[in-house]
């Protein structure tokens, strides 16, 4: 990203390695998010912009991660995208697995999602049209630029 050292922690990929011992039960989801938060903190401590791309359905878990990261460097991006769009864009087939019962406790299917009260960045459809991935990236970079993270 514009010459800055960055790393993406993908929630699904982390579940194949670091968190392969965890299920989608509430307590395992909390542990999944806690571990990812700890890894993100290590990256941040090393000066790397770490993007944790994952579904974190519970406010309490997101708030715990925020508390781990010093100096207001935790930036929550709330992608307020309708479930039908998420399912249509499901490249990994996870929603299909959840709908067929092969994954239990999947957010939006048979487990709730607690929207944040105040995220730093809100990405949402405009006039019923979902922003493109490129537009979403530009919105995040703009926020980082405007708030001094890319100096």
TrEMBL record:
EC number: 2.7.1.25
The APS kinase domain, residue ranges: 2-123
Family annotation (SUPFAM superfamilies): P-loop containing nucleoside triphosphate hydrolases
Recorded metabolic or biological pathway in which this protein acts: Sulfur metabolism; hydrogen sulfide biosynthesis; sulfite from sulfate: step 2/3
CDD domains: APSK (cd02027)
Catalytic activity: adenosine 5'-phosphosulfate + ATP = 3'-phosphoadenylyl sulfate + ADP + H(+)
Alphabetical list of InterPro entries matching this protein: APS (IPR002891), APS_kinase_dom (IPR059117), P-loop_NTPase (IPR027417)
Keyword Phosphoprotein: no
Pfam family, one: APS_kinase
Keywords associated with the record: ATP-binding, Kinase, Nucleotide-binding, Transferase
Assigned protein family: Belongs to the APS kinase family.
Function per UniProt: Catalyzes the synthesis of activated sulfate.
Name this protein carries in UniProt: Adenylyl-sulfate kinase
Natural source organism: Platanthera guangdongensis
Taxonomic lineage of the native organism: Eukaryota, Viridiplantae, Streptophyta, Embryophyta, Tracheophyta
């Amino acid at each position: 990203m514009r010459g800055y050292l960055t790393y993406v922690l993908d929630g699904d990929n982390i579940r194949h390695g670091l968190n392969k011992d965890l299920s989608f039960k509430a307590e395992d989801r909390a542990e999944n998010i806690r571990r990812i938060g700890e890894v993100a903190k290590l990256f941040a401590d090393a000066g790397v912009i770490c993007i944790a791309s994952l579904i974190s359905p519970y406010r309490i878990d997101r708030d715990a991660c925020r508390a781990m990261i010093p100096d207001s460097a935790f930036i929550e991006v709330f992608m307020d995208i309708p479930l039908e769009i998420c399912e249509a864009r499901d490249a990994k087939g996870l929603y299909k697995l959840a709908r067929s019962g092969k994954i239990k406790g999947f957010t939006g299917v048979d487990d709730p999602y607690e929207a944040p009260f105040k995220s730093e960045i809100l990405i949402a459809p405009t006039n019923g049209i979902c922003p493109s991935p490129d537009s979403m990236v530009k919105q995040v970079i703009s926020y980082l630029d405007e708030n001094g993270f890319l100096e």
